[in-house]
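Changelog note: in this version the structure field was regenerated for every chain. One regenerated record is shown below for reference.
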Amino acid sequence: MGYGDRKEMLGISYLRYCIGILGEIPNLNDLEWESIYDFCCRQAILGVGFCGIEKLPKEQKPPYELLLQWIAWILQIENQNRLLNGRCVKLKEMFAEAGFSTLILKGQGNALMYPNPLRRQSGDIDIWVRPANRDKKVGVKKTLEYLCSKCEMSKQVVGYHHVEFPYFDDAEVEVHWRPSWKSSPIHNLRMQRWFIEMADRQFSHVDKKTGLHVPTWDFNVVYQLQHMYLHILQEGIGLRQVIDYFYLLKSANDDEWSKMEDIRQTLKRLDLWHFAGAMMYVLKEVLGMEEKYLFVAVDEKRGTFLCEEILKSGNFGQYDERNKELSEKTGIRRSLARLKRQYRFLRDYPIEVLCAPFQVYHVIWRKLKLWKWE
């Protein structure tokens, strides 16, 4: 790999050991362990990193004080996952009682595919909600009316695809009426139609262990790729999302894998094909994923640049110095800063980047309250 410094390479090698790609690692000194710990913090993968520590003999484990610090984080991560899992059940029951269907997107659903689901570092709860009795309709107005009846929503910004729902004091929730979106009007239209076509099967797909409705494998292969694509253009992503995708691809059975040709056609139709090729490169070069799981031809040129962005950005771009403009500016200036960021990707993803100004439709949709007609 022609990118990254020695610390990043050390972190990547250790990560491969944690996920079972490397069989063993050499003895590490205290400074190297500090570097690995910092790498896992930046990428929000402390839980995955600790799974590697558990496999090591006593004499190879991190220095005692760092180990204690790491254990403290693990206990917090596991407790937070237990809390969020309970909150997901609460949300499902609450919405069902009011006549809504729900589907847990990303986060807690992704954790189910990990060897130890409690070790995935969690964020907020993303839940797709639709009125159960409205066939193939989004139902934004009805959903918002219900949310307003449950808690104070006047300070929340109603977005084109979701809104924050401050129902719990101990867990952040985003209620979606659309799982995602694209800047390109034509590709966004295709994507929203695809979501509608796939919705019935998603809302009827139940995880047997938790009883929660979670996406099917083929839906997730497309949707999670779109989720990463959206965030790499908007702010950045870290390795946590890449590891999610790694475990997703490895979780497929033969029946699910047989749907791959349809998935490829969907990726082409939704303008995700080039990004998929870049992600295959990241999966191969960073995580060491076996060739049989790389369902799109590896795009080395785009993939090398994507690797650099992921390693530089950290979790959702929180460690990217170039993102300071996004946090320091507001209004139009912030929008211009976001456009500036997106234009870094013009060579690799020209359609989506050139269509970025069409995001003004989201503002119009919100200001004119067009959700009243959905």
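Spot check on this record: The CA atoms of residues 252 and 367 lie 43 Å apart. The two ends are 48 Å apart (CA to CA).
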